[in-house]
Amino acid sequence: MLRVHTRSKLMTMIFSLFVILLILGGCSSSSENNAAANKGDSAPGTDTGTSESAADDRGNTVEDTAEEPEAHKEEVRRQGRTDAPIQAGQLTAGEWDDLAAWERFNNLLNSREGSDSSTYWGFEFFNRLEVLVTSDGKAVSDATVKLIGQQKETVWSARTNADGKAYLFAGLFPDNQQPNQRTRYSVEVMAEQQKKKVSNIEVPGQGALKIDLDGELPVSDQVDVMFVVDTTGSMQDEMDYLEAELKDVITRVGDQHANQLDIKMSSNFYRDIHDDYVVKSNPFTANIDQAVRLIAMQKAQGGGDYPEAVEQALRDAVSGHKWSEDARARLLFLVLDAPPHHETQILQEMHSAITEAAKEGIRIIPVASSGVDVDTEYLLRFAAVATGGTYLFLTDDSGIGSDHLEPAVGEYETKLLNDLLVEVINRYVQ
Q1: Dihedral over Cα of 279, 280, 284, 288: its sign
Q2: 334-371 pLDDT tens trace
Q3: Cα–Cα distance between 104 and 300 in angstroms, integer?
Q4: Which range of residues forms the domain containing residue 406?
Q5: Which pTM value belongs to this model?
Q6: I need a surface site. Which of 31, 85, 243, 288 has the fewest CB within 10 A?
Q7: Is residue 49 included in any domain, yes or no?
């Protein structure tokens, strides 16, 4: 009996010990869970410097954030930004000036991509001569500068910018080729009643050719600013925002220079053949409010295929308007997301419009929107280079619109589009 009782007592003790261990284990687990919960509660006030903590703060687990597809997150980001109220200061953009980074531009032309694009658009040789015109030690703006060939023909004509610089090209298009690439040229400069000629010049040249005129020459207060905007359906994703940005730019530029410069604005729009209009042209006006109203009235529709009637819009912009005969700056902002149709006659019209723009001192400044492909990027940069302009392009940073092509350029600073446009205008009219 004693042996049975002892065995029973031993079994009871083992069972009791087992129960106690279970209870202690449960308490330990509960304490760990509470500690984890308390750590999560304190995260909003803890600067951990990690994105995972930020995800927890918004109620997402680290695992959920890590497993979320990148494309889905990007789409959510875009939708959230696009739903924001439409106002100026939302689109983002960058700038690249190929004329200021000429060695890099030449290297790009020697790449397969650059070579293919220049051939595709009918550009032959970017043999450039930079000319700097001064008078009494100061830059001369809007001086006519010509590159003269051996047969006394004008190979290229341009006008100096506010820095006194003009860019001349030999052999840019097939119709201004010289029989010998070693041809020597003459450069002729005309400003006011003065004319100077320098002979035996090589193109391309090493460094700037400096030409100094006599006496101090007057500087015009006239500035012509034109916006030529693609309003086809493919521009719809950014059109409303572009309207807000351009209205802001026009208003700011008008206000900033109201007492110093005589500014004229022109707002023009284009689509494609077979649309309800191809080019909607408006003359230059000093009435800034009128230019703003014209932009506000536009809606994006039409188009259909990828190319648009760019050559007709550019031809109308350059030759169909009364640009100032004397001006400190003539700026043509070409806002678009598609190239012209790739046909021989259309390419010739593009070449002709670019040549005429350079001759008249009209700087073509493209604003490349979403949808611009590689070949279109090069065409726009070629047009900017040939006319003394610069290349602007929208970026994905705003989260507005479709994806934007990352251009083949060096490091650049992303800025708000409206601020960048005002900055560029001010630089040309300084």
Answers
A1: negative
A2: 999 899 999 999 999 999 999 999 999 999 999 999 88
A3: 36
A4: 87-121+220-429
A5: 0.79
A6: 85
A7: no
